[in-house]
Specification:
The structure holds 2 protein chains of 2 kinds. By secondary structure, chain A is α/β, with parallel strands linked by helices. Chain A is built from 10 helices and 7 strands. Chain A has a 7-stranded mixed beta sheet, sandwiched between helices. By secondary structure, chain B is an alpha+beta fold. Chain B has a single domain, classed as Alpha-Beta Plaits (2-Layer Sandwich). Chain B has a two-stranded antiparallel sheet with strand order 1-4. A two-stranded antiparallel ribbon of chain B has the order 2-3. In chain B, 43% of the residues are buried. The chains are: A alpha/beta, B alpha+beta. Chains A and B meet through helix 1, helix 8 and helix 10 of A and helix 1, helix 2 and strand 4 of B. The complex binds thiamine diphosphate and iron/sulfur cluster.
């Protein structure tokens, strides 16, 4: 009998510090498997965010830098431009990317930087204890919206993928989910494409992954998955919002 | 017969694998591990079909699937 599954070699042996069931852990595995499969471990650079994934550099066995809150896309821009042979990815949560870092992600996409961005949307600030994020659903409870997000007071969630897809220089934008084995397999395909695009010189590639934060939602991981499927996907439909991959491969 | 092995020091007892297994072969132990969680275990003999669904959903890469 043979093992048909293994820990990707682009992960260190360190135990993830994430909470039980957290979507970050699943996405770390997917990204590491993609790095293994594309054989880019020696060239990959992770830009870790501020948020629960702040220690991503402990887990990815690749070069790394941890940036100020929300500035990942700007840092990734600098690394990629200075060292074009590196394969640079910015890994960010929704507080990091869509609140304090909104300017950086929009402008990196507008400039069409040839970088890969992995965006974990769990509708909340995880690390700091469950404050409302721009992605928090209307009616969803957060410590800063104890009665639930009120459209009249706090407005509506920002659908980052749809928004970035409007920018001419963004090349590949997809939203996937980490809620089930089939969706996780699809998520990996999207992540692989977002890295392959960088290798092919396609340009700005962005994958949003819907994830659970059971701890700050105050539910069990299994209940969290139900919330993701029933509530989150209604606000954040899965799918490809933009794909100019073929048209933009270098040399075409 | 295919089987899974659960690394008890990595498993955090999140239970996601128990729902992902199409054959419901996985249950949660009633004794806790050295890390203080109630880990998953392959609860039924000759149940696993080696599909790897539990591996896909396991956040902590605690499951190895054998076939
Ligand atoms: C300049 C600055 N402002 C605020 C904070 C506090 N802070 C740390 S993490 C975080 C939000 C993280 O949320 P998110 O990006 O959604 O990631 P998650 O923890 O959910 O993965 C905030 C506001 C900080 N560290 N630095
Ligand atoms: S607080 Fe939320 S996002 Fe942070 S590790 Fe826990 S489950 Fe994951």
């Amino acid at each position: 009998m043979n093992a048909i599954t293994k820990r990707p070699s682009s992960l260190t042996q360190a135990q993830f510090h994430y909470c039980p069931g957290c979507g970050h852990s699943v996405v770390h595995r997917l990204v590491a498997e993609v790095i293994d499969e594309l054989n880019i471990k020696d060239r990959a650079v992770v830009v870790a965010p501020v948020g629960c994934a702040v220690f991503a550099d402990k887990y990815f066995d690749v070069d790394s830098i941890q940036g100020p809150h929300g500035r990942g896309p700007a840092i990734a821009t600098g690394i990629k431009r200075a060292k074009p042979e590196s394969i640079v990815f910015s890994y960010q949560g929704d507080g990091d990317l869509a609140s304090i870092g909104m300017a950086e992600i929009v402008h990196a996409a507008a400039r069409g930087e040839n970088i890969t961005v992995i965006f974990i949307n769990n509708t909340i600030y995880g690390m700091t204890g469950g404050q409302m994020a721009p992605t928090t659903l209307v009616g969803q409870v957060a410590t800063t919206a104890p009665k639930g997000r009120n459209e009249k007071l706090q407005g509506n969630p920002i659908n980052v993928s749809e928004m970035l897809a409007q920018l001419k220089s963004a090349k590949y934008i997809e939203r996937v989910s980490s809620d089930s084995a089939p969706n996780i397999i699809k998520a990996k395909k999207a992540i692989k494409k977002a890295f392959q695009n960088q290798l092919d010189g396609v340009g700005f590639s962005f994958v949003e992954v819907l994830s659970i934060c059971p701890t700050n939602w105050g539910v069990t991981p299994l209940k969290g998955l139900e919330f993701l499927r029933e509530k989150m996907i209604a606000q954040y439909p899965l799918g490809v919002f933009k794909d100019l991959t073929v048209a933009n491969k270098e040399g075409k | 017969m295919p089987k899974i092995e659960v690394n008890e020091t990595r498993c955090k007892g999140c239970q996601l694998c128990t729902k992902a297994c199409p054959k419901q072969c996985i249950e949660i132990s009633d004794t806790f591990s050295t890390t203080g969680y109630y880990p998953a275990k392959l609860a039924k003999q000759d149940c696993c079909i080696g599909c790897g669904m539990c591996f896909q959903v396991c956040p902590d890469i605690a499951i190895t699937v054998f076939r």
